[in-house]
Amino acid sequence: MYESNWKGANISYWDERANMEYTYKKEKFYTITPIPYYYARRKIIIRKIKKIIKKNHFKYICDFGCGDGEYIKKIWEKELYIHGVDASPSMIDIAKKLQYDNVSYEVSEKGITEDAKFDMIYSSAVWAHIDDMHCQYLMHNIYEHLFNGGIFVICEQTAPFRYGGGVFFETNK
Prior knowledge:
InterPro entries: SAM-dependent_MTases_sf. The chain has five helices and nine strands.
């Protein structure tokens, strides 16, 4: 068993982000990625995650780094059991406002602590925020919570932009 004394990412940063909401196409966002780009990319990721769930007849799903629960909201179906994990209490508070059957949440800085196994664990826009020293611990934590034959899907959103001085610049120019 791997051990870690990690105290988590900068939790106060994520709690502050929970108070920095932006509205685009009547939806709330908590991202610093340019929202039209994030919105389009998120639609692709959700479509792919739903396809994997359906193709494999998965029922037990975990959103690792669920933030505000928006991905859970988009993939939820009544026959699924979904568990959301996030290090930020404020983000989990937002996620809990989405009251669906068979959905649970936990605040955890050390990965999944729920005594459960999952068919699929996915994360989106999470790993760029975790330092190298703790990736191995968290990857092992995820592996320990997968059923035999379960899968882990990592989606990282990288925009063709860089941020500087309060402005986004296209990187391909």
